[in-house]
Amino acid sequence: KPGQLDASRRAIEDHLKRRGEHAHVAVDWRTHAFCVRRELLEPKKISIILWSRHNVERLAQRIESLTARTSYPSYEIVVVGEGSQALPPTRHHVPRASDLSNAAASNNLAVQQTDGPWLLFLDVGIQPMESNWLTIMSEHVQRPEVGAVGARLVNSNGTVEHAGIVVGVNGIAQPAFRGFPAEHPGVNRQLQVARNCSAVPGACLLTRRQIFLDVGGFDESLPASLADVDLCLKIRQRGYLIVYTPFAKLYCDAPQPAEIDISGEAIMRRRWSDLLEGDPYYNPNFSRERADFSLGK
What we know:
- The chain is α+β, with helices and mostly antiparallel strands.
- The protein has 2 domains: 37 residues; 232 residues, Spore Coat Polysaccharide Biosynthesis Protein SpsA, Chain A (Alpha-Beta Complex).
- Helices cover 28% and strands 25% of the residues.
- It has 8 helices and 13 strands.
- Strands 3, 4, 5, 6, 7, 8, 11, 12 and 13 form a 9-stranded mixed sheet that branches. It has a two-stranded antiparallel sheet with strand order 1-2. Strands 9-10 form a two-stranded antiparallel ribbon.
- A hairpin with a 4-residue loop joins β1 and β2.
- The two termini are 35 Å apart.
């Protein structure tokens, strides 16, 4: 009932106020879920580390689109990967890397050559739907208890590509709700509410520089498809939360199928065997074949 939902909304706002958090709570009347928008106390400079596999012309177009759709007031763009070396050096900072094929190594190098207190790792194939996407993600990364933040990534066909990651499902890890319609509520509305999870994809991952450095950055011995999960698990191991927010919405190119890396998977199984047996944010009675929060057999 509308009256009950509004009373719940006010109760959440009062709770946040008692915690000293400046926030506004709205009701999504379609799903009856609550949207908590925190006040961004200080928009700190963000170093956007853009990983590219495009030629220079396509890369320049993507950068222009990114800047046109980003209202966040303080950021720089750092380009690594293919095509980056041909960009005009006066427009964007381009780290010089000897091996651009290793995304983890290139990202680590880019961090060393930037000074933003917050870091956003972003694939060049990601394009914002709305200009406030980075502000929404920053509302969470400013929270002392949060270590990394991910967004809702939607394919061109209107289905979910990423909405947080579940570990230990169908191998090392699987994206939650992949293939669901973008506006589907998901089980218990989990696709449409901000929630904690074990990992978020490196294709769009916001963290604080000091946390990234404290955990040692990306493991350069792992492929990109595992290095982001490993980074998030290291952050969680330090006691921080990993947050998925559906209110930061971005389009993404269809990803290339990741090749199975046997040695990388072996490293992950040795390092995180306990978590791969049971993701703390995924009920053990749920499916182990797909990360859609459905009951398993």
